[in-house]
Amino acid sequence: MWQMTGRFIRKWFHRLGSPRWFYQVTGKWLPWLALVTVGLLMVGSLWGLGFAPQDARQGNSFRIIYIHVPISVLSLAGYYVMAAAGAVALIWKVKLADMVMVSAAPLGAALTFLALLTGAIWGKPTWGTYWVWDARITSMLVLLFLYLGVIALNQAFTSRDTAYKACAILSLVGTVNIPIIYKSVDWWYTLHQPATLKLTGASTIHPSMLKPLIIMILGFYSFYALVLILNTRAEILTRERRSSWVKELREP
Amino acid sequence: MASAPLLEIQAIAFERDDRTLFSDVSVCLAAGEIMQVSGPNGCGKTTLLHILATLKPPAHGQMLWRGDDIRADRFGYLADIAFIGHQPGLKLALSARENLIWCARLHGLPVSGKIDMALDRAGLSHCKDVPCSTLSAGQLRRVALAVLHLREALLWLLDEPLTALDHEGISELEAMFRSHLGEGGIIVFSSHQALSLAGVRNLPLTEYAASLN
Amino acid sequence: MFGESSFGGILRRDLLLAFRRGSDVLNPLFFFMMTTSLVPLATGPSASQLALIAPGIIWITALLATLLTLDGMFKDDFADGSLFQIILSPQPLWLLVLAKVLAHWLVAGLPITLVAPLLALMLALPDAGYVPMVIGLAIGTACFSMVGAVGAALTVALQRGGVLLSLIVMPLYFPVLIFGASAVHRAVEGQDYYPVLALLGAFFTFALLTAPFAAAAALKVGING
Description:
The complex is a heterotrimer of chains A (252), B (213) and C (225).
Chain A: H1 2-16, H2 19-51, H3 65-92, H4 95-127, H5 135-156, H6 160-188, H7 207-239, H8 244-250
Chain B: E1 5-16, E2 19-30, E3 34-38, H1 45-52, E4 60-65, E5 68-69, H2 74-80, E6 81-84, H3 96-106, H4 113-121, H5 137-151, E7 155-159, H6 167-182, E8 186-190, E9 200-204
Parallel strand pairs in B: 3-8, 3-9, 6-7, 7-8
Antiparallel strand pairs in B: 1-2, 1-4, 4-5
Chain C: H1 6-20, H2 23-43, H3 47-70, H4 72-80, H5 82-87, H6 93-122, H7 130-154, H8 162-188, H9 194-222
Helix pairs in contact in C: 1-6, 2-3, 2-6, 3-6, 3-7, 3-8, 6-7, 6-9, 7-8, 7-9, 8-9
């Protein structure tokens, strides 16, 4: 009985690690995922940007949090996705995880940059300045640098195998350091608004503003998954271009 | 006549960026045997030697030393082997003696008169204490080979040991090989040239290269 | 004994080489002194202004000077084949990496720490700042060497890895910089700085316990460049 379970787990682990299987399965689901993404983002944006009530202090400029907050959440979550993929690739030598990690890096970097940008846009009317060196923003900047480091390291190697392993190690080192960096920057300067969204306990944000925000966060998670899958598919095709199934795709 | 194999290489394969360099390499070497890995540049001779030295893990296969998997007792295996790569691992700013002292310390050997003996055996008695930057390429090769005398390892893994050696140097190297093999050692080396030694087994690596599909 | 072990062997050889090639010690020191001297030229010689920014300037230039030397930690050994011999030594690689880090700190970080008070004098740092600066730099440069070893190991086989190395290692230096400079600031403002140095020490301990293993793993990956 245990043997059967072991074999079952190994078979699925093998399947999940196969780039070809991933490519074929995601090919079927992608249109639905795209539909869900567009749906969530549209509903969330219209609700948040159009229909949610104005903020007492900030007026209409606060509405950018419907974009800024989800993107910030994703940029940090994305780093952990990248690092986890790297860990799986390093420990269990799963090729697919390598490709996911490498696809997550530019995606995360772009999201972090957008988070900083939208934060700056929010900052000008709200606090009078585009940029301020407080804990949150500075930590987000460090996150951007960590991403850029992984991207740069990936580019530097001619051997893909070494590049992936090196990036996995760097991502893991960064993961260990993120809490330390956050805490040290936090300790160094705290000006930013306290988090309006707590996962446990009552949020300090009004429900009528909270609901569209949650929808936007879900929508951006869906968006992240969509773009990550698309990038990974491109990476799969590039890396496996010499194999027979890819050649069949080109000339059926 | 076949004695128990000391080194067993079983179905070793190596892949780099989804390209299989070689696969299913299987060899058994007993004490006193010498094997030459041959093939054109780029076919993976250095990689195979690196795998044998545990510098790189193989994609498939395993290696046994004295009947045990190398991975089970890597340090034990490392104590029994001496690897000399393309670059011999010498600092030019240091003298031959200082370089050998470093080697001794690195492998847990006592710093003693053995170093002088090793340098003498390598024919370097007159230039032990001058900076290696003043030595010729051939003399530098001899310093690298002096390390072999010092280490007294059973398995020698040598990557292109014949480079920078003249005729005299090559015959000295062959003599060194002969005495090592006579003492029951094993030698695996890569080279384009052939040695004038009897009983050199050949491993043409291109025969193990995967066919392009 | 200690000096005869692999750890001692690596330490002694690296120190001997640095001693013979004096530029290993002097060049980063000169860089440190010169870049620090650039600051008054750029911001004006007013002592009160310099005193305000002195802690930060010295820490930043110390960081940059250390970064410059980081590239050579493993690269020289990789180029002449010594690194393979180190990896093939029957001693745990993390221990040998630690020897390399110690040698690097003794050659780069320690001289910087010892020269820093002189530069602080030139930048009009108030008296209270000297002690926390020296202690902080001693620990901080050790952190730089330790954490930097991981980056140096990853980029060991890359031809022009210098700037890339700085990019990947600098984010990891931020906490060290924050704590180190803050300690001096607090001392200058008359506040208690021991807790901040303790935080720096905690970071060093954490790095000491994790970085050698990460660097050893990174070396085994990096040599395949």
